[in-house]
Amino acid sequence: MTPRTPRSLAQAKTLRSPHNTFAHTPSFWSTTGLYPQEIFLGFKDEVRVTEIRTVTENVGKLSLERVIPNASEISQVLWKRILTVDVPSQEGQLQTEIHKVNNIAIKYLKLVIHEGANHGPISAVFSVNLKVNDSWIFPESS
Fold first, then answer.
1. Which run of H or of E encompasses 116?
2. SS3 32
3. For residue 11, which phi and psi values (nearest 5 degrees)?
4. pLDDT in tens, 65-82
5. Phi and psi for 94 in degrees, rounded to 5?
6. Which residue from 5, 27, 28, 133 lies 20 to 30 Å from 16 (Cα-Cα)?
7. pLDDT of residue 1
8. Close Cβ partners of 45 (under 8 Å, ≥ 6 residues apart)
9. What is the reported pLDDT for 51?
């Protein structure tokens, strides 16, 4: 997958795979060793999120961004950073992080891996879940 920023929501939809890779363990998404790497996730409808859980391996620094609400009404998609974190190294073990957010609206989510743990070349994302109404959900398939 070649990292790029979509210019429209239609382009963001085309970057998603035809099924939800993360919902089917033991599937995962692996980087090619070049950073940054971007993963785009979408939901059928906008959801109000209180927490985001990521399960990764060998990720050093990542950020999460969302499309600004009502951005679909303009020709250029505007991304707003939710958070940037340095993920503690687990030396080859899974890194489970829960990121608290303030009941934000999300329809499209972008996960950006800026660097690998200890500046290593390969990272993996095993799952991304969002907490909505006290339940953990996966992004929808298209």
1. strand 95-116
2. coil
3. -65, -35
4. 998 866 555 567 789 999
5. -65, 140
6. 133
7. 39
8. 107
9. 95
